[in-house]
């Protein structure tokens, strides 16, 4: 059974017209179950090229073909353009006119996972175990890093990939065009930075991750502005060193795998594949699905 998504309302020039007009069928339950977790940790897997590419096409292809997996735990910071409310966040917020189905975590650009995302083209898999609900969520897709150049030409490719999955919040159709035009990529990134504790913000001023730690009493390998354990308070959200290293990682999902083990005698599993509209409805995933909802092909399979 195919369910076609209604066309979204026109979007002001501040953002390109979204490719989706309604929420993913898994979104509400995903958010609800993440909210029940003491901390919404997810295991994030990226590809680590065996050697840094030389810059040539042959060198890049060789690095990709010899990639090995890397996994680490990250805290999910909500969904892009849908930052959870936090009364302790001192950063200004964007007008509440957009939302998405794109999970977000934050990272330091100097960490290997940031380089891995850039060098590999961004393939990523993130897994949550929502113990309170007895459900595992596995999200596969492409990761994009947003930093100081998010609203500049260097960030155009990431913006284009992300913004086509942003949509009007239900009921925001009457929101003025001015509010939408004032929506800002840098403001959203600053809001994510402000949502962290002062100590966590300060971690982006730490010495370079992975570099040797010098023996006590010996000179270190830090750069000006770096220092261990120095918090960034609410009045310094524009700290140049911390903000130069801070990145928001946005995952654009292509597949979502939900395994519900809450009933031991009747485990359930659903696969969601993003097919979009138009030609996507003729894809194999769409044709073999139990139903297509808002651009997502849903199929129940054995756990």
From TrEMBL:
Q: Report the InterPro entries cross-referenced here.
A: Pyridox_Oxase_Alr4036_FMN-bd, Split_barrel_FMN-bd
Tell me where on the tree of life, at the top rank, the source sits: Eukaryota
Q: Where is the Pyridoxamine 5'-phosphate oxidase Alr4036 family FMN-binding domain?
A: 52-146
Protein name, UniProt field: Pyridoxamine 5'-phosphate oxidase Alr4036 family FMN-binding domain-containing protein
Organism expressing this protein natively = Sporothrix eucalyptigena
Region called Disordered, residue ranges: 195-240
Which PANTHER family does the entry link to? AGL049CP, PYRIDOXAMINE 5'-PHOSPHATE OXIDASE ALR4036 FAMILY FMN-BINDING DOMAIN-CONTAINING PROTEIN
Note the SUPFAM superfamilies from the entry. FMN-binding split barrel
């Amino acid at each position: 059974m195919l369910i076609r998504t209604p066309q979204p309302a026109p979007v002001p020039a501040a953002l390109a017209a979204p490719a989706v007009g309604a929420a993913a069928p898994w979104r509400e339950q995903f958010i609800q179950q993440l909210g029940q977790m003491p901390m919404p940790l997810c295991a994030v897997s990226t590809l680590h090229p065996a050697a840094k590419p030389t810059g040539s096409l042959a060198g890049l292809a060789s690095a990709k073909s010899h990639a090995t997996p890397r996994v680490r735990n990250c805290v999910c910071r909500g969904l892009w353009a849908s930052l959870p409310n936090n009364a302790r966040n001192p950063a200004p917020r964007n007008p509440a006119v957009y939302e998405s189905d794109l999970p977000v975590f934050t990272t330091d650009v100097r960490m290997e996972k940031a380089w891995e995302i850039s060098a590999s083209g961004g393939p990523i898999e993130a897994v949550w175990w929502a113990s309170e609900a007895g459900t595992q969520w596995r999200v596969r897709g492409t990761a994009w890093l947003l930093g100081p150049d998010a609203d500049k030409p260097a960030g155009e490719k990431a913006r284009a990939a992300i913004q086509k999955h942003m949509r009007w919040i239900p009921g925001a159709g009457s929101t003025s065009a001015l509010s939408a035009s004032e929506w800002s990529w840098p403001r959203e990134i600053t809001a994510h930075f402000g949502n962290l504790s002062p100590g966590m913000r300060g971690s982006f001023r730490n010495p370079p991750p992975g570099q040797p730690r010098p023996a006590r009493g010996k000179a270190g390998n830090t750069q000006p502005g770096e220092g261990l354990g120095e918090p960034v308070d609410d009045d310094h959200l524009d700290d140049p060193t911390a903000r130069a290293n801070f990145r928001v990682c946005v995952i654009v999902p292509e597949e979502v795998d939900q395994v519900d083990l809450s009933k031991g005698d009747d485990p359930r599993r659903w696969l969601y594949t993003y097919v979009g509209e138009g030609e996507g409805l003729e894809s194999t995933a769409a044709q073999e699905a139990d139903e297509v909802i808002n651009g997502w092909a849903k199929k129940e399979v054995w756990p």
